[in-house]
Design brief:
Elements lengths: L4 H6 L3 E4 L9 H19 L3 H14 L9 H8 L3 H7 L10 H10 L3 E6 L3 H11 L7 E4 H4 L6 H11 L6 E5 L2 H9 L4 E5 L16 E3 L3 H4 L5
Parallel strand pairs: 1-2, 1-4, 2-3, 4-5, 5-6
Helix pairs in contact: 2-3, 9-10
Length: about 230
Amino acid sequence: MKGNHKIFWDDIEWVLLDLDGTLLDKYFDDYFWETLVPEKYAQKYGLSFQEAKEKVVALYQREEGTLNWTDLDFWSKKLALDLPALKKQIAHLIDTHPYVVDFLKFLKQMGKKVFLVTNAHYESLNLKLKHTQLGLYFDGVICAFDIGLSKEDKRFWRRLQEKLKFDPSHTLFIDDSEAPLLAAKEIGIKYLFFKTQASSKSSPKLPINNFSKIEYFKELIEGIEK
C-alpha cells in the first residue's frame, strides 16, 4: 500500500531504531553465535562442532528474551570464553544494510528525533558503532542495560517513554523481531514497522502479526508503506 509521503512523515516526531538485523546486517551476529562460539567451545572442551553447537544453542534458548540473551559478560562466564575478544576478531564482518545511511541522513534533514534502541551489550554496541560510525546520526543511544529490561518487556517501553518523553502517537519504531514491536504496541506507539531482511545470507521473513513491513529503508525514504 502506498502511503502519502508528506502526511506520513509530518505526523512523526520521534524515530526509534533497533540495531542488529535492522540497521546492521545480522549475518555478523548469526555467524558469531551459531558458528564461531560453538567452534571455540568445541576446541576448549574436546567436542565435535555439532555437539558443541547443540549444547550452546540450548543454553542460549534458556535466556531468550532476557538481558542475559545479549550479555557478553554473562556468556563469557557461562562458556568460559572471552567473547568480546572473539567479536573483535570478526569485526570486519560488521556491515550496514543497504540505504541505512541514506535513511538516517533523510531523518536528520527532516528534523526528526532519532534514537537507537537496542538490546546489544555495551561492548558489542561500542564495537559496532566504532566500526560503522552510525553514532553520528543519532540524538541518543538507549541500551536495554541502561533501562534494566529487554525490549521484549512492555515495562522497558514505559521506562523509555518516561526517560525520553516521546509521544507514542507521533513515534515510529522499526525492528526485525516481532516481540519488541508487540511490547511497543502495548504502550501505544503508532507507527510500527517490521524489517523483513535481517541477514544478507537469509531470505526475508514475513511478520506473523499484522505489522507494516519493509525490506529496505529505501521504501520509507520514498514514502512507501507495505
